[in-house]
Amino acid sequence: MTPTPEYFRNIDPKKCTDCGKSMEEMHESYLNQCDKCLRLIDHD
Ligand SMILES: [Zn+2]
Q: Which Pfam families does UniProt cross-reference here (predicted)?
């Protein structure tokens, strides 16, 4: 059995660097924090 590249992608779920919450449902894949934490650190 040869694992596909897609498999390795799926085994590395993105998690919030602040609270550790899984962000599989997040669309902003370039972000390292969940929506909740992003709002908390909003410096604007
Ligand atoms: Zn978070």
A: YhfH
Where are the chain's structural domains?
1-44
Distance in Å, CA 3 to ligand 1 centroid: 31
- DSSP strand E in 1-44: where? none
Q: Which residue has the higher pLDDT, 3 or 35?
A: 35
Residue 16 tokens, joined: 């919030």
* Separation of CA 15 and ligand 1 centre (Å): 8
Give distance in angstroms: CA of 9 to centre of ligand 1: 21
Q: What is the pLDDT of residue 19?
A: 93
